[in-house]
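Page 47, continued from p. 46.
Same chain as before, 144 aa.
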Amino acid sequence: MYRSLTVSLVVLTGLSACAHSREPVATGPDLAPFATAPAPANARLYADCIGQAIDTGSYARAHDPSTELLVFSCSGAPARVFYDALAERSRITGSEYRLDGRTLRTTEPIQRDRFGTDSCSWDGATDWRCEISLRTGTFLTDGI
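Result:
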């Protein structure tokens, strides 16, 4: 009997320790606003390109099995300014490429393919173009 009482006490102590662990109790998501800071100067490059794309209706959907993107396309002056601003960064990071007679500069080096990258290109004469990707989630296609 003494042995079964000891075993019972050990089990109850173990259960009590589990019930009083310091692990936080699962709660809902944290809905507090997240911190922001004033936008850096390069944010204007994105805003100008996206603004032109909205004004001209130059945006489209791109997706893969796990990602939905809204891709904004701009050209002309906003694209030229963005392209020129990428020159030094592209040189340093190795994110300048030749593609179909155009020079392509991306905001980050391409790892696998261009899906989801922000980029600008130039034909060497008068045609500048940029594509800016915005990750949207499935709301983009839900139709609700």
